[in-house]
């Protein structure tokens, strides 16, 4: 399976990079994983609704350009469906079983994802009703994908 994580923003925090690197290394035993960083759109702190939409559109165009054409796209969105780790594992296994070998997981910037990206997504996934920094979400996502593969293989993993 080929997993592409497309994330808006550059990861700066060393501790997050180290955590992500560790899970990517562990995941390499199960799947080919690639993380693509999309530059975030520079914008002032205070934005109008129109300006926010424009920022998300520009970031969205960059995201869509990096999504493999034949990928099953899962967008992380607060409005998405919440799943247990076991449900995520079952869904990934089902995708693999039915010939979807490319999965793209998309993490938006601080303003979220554009309507175009959400429309391109095959599904939306929410980790919580709470808002998380998108840099931290990258670490949580990689850990959950790793956990899903451990569950699929019936391998032990701490709870």
Automatic annotation (TrEMBL):
Q: What is its main location?
A: cytoplasm
Top enzyme class of this protein? Answer: transferase
Q: Which CDD domains match?
A: RlmH-like
Signal sequence region: none
Sections of the chain in a coiled coil: none
Q: Does Cytoplasm count among this protein's keywords?
A: yes
Q: Which reaction does it catalyse?
A: pseudouridine(1915) in 23S rRNA + S-adenosyl-L-methionine = N(3)-methylpseudouridine(1915) in 23S rRNA + S-adenosyl-L-homocysteine + H(+)
- Cytoplasm among the record's keywords? yes
UniProt xrefs under Pfam families: SPOUT_MTase
Any idea of its EC number?
2.1.1.177
Q: Which SUPFAM superfamilies match?
A: alpha/beta knot (SSF75217)
The residues the record assigns to binding S-adenosyl-L-methionine are 76, 108, 127-132
Query: Where is this protein found?
Result: Cytoplasm
Domain of life here? Answer: Bacteria
- An MF annotation (GO) of this entry: methyltransferase activity
Instruction: Give the UniProt keywords, A-Z.
Output: Cytoplasm, Methyltransferase, rRNA processing, S-adenosyl-L-methionine, Transferase
Q: Could you mention a single GO BP entry for this protein?
A: methylation
Biological function: Specifically methylates the pseudouridine at position 1915 (m3Psi1915) in 23S rRNA.
Q: How does it assemble?
A: Homodimer.
> What family is this?
Belongs to the RNA methyltransferase RlmH family.
Q: Under what name is this protein listed?
A: Ribosomal RNA large subunit methyltransferase H
Q: Which organism is it from?
A: Bacillus chungangensis
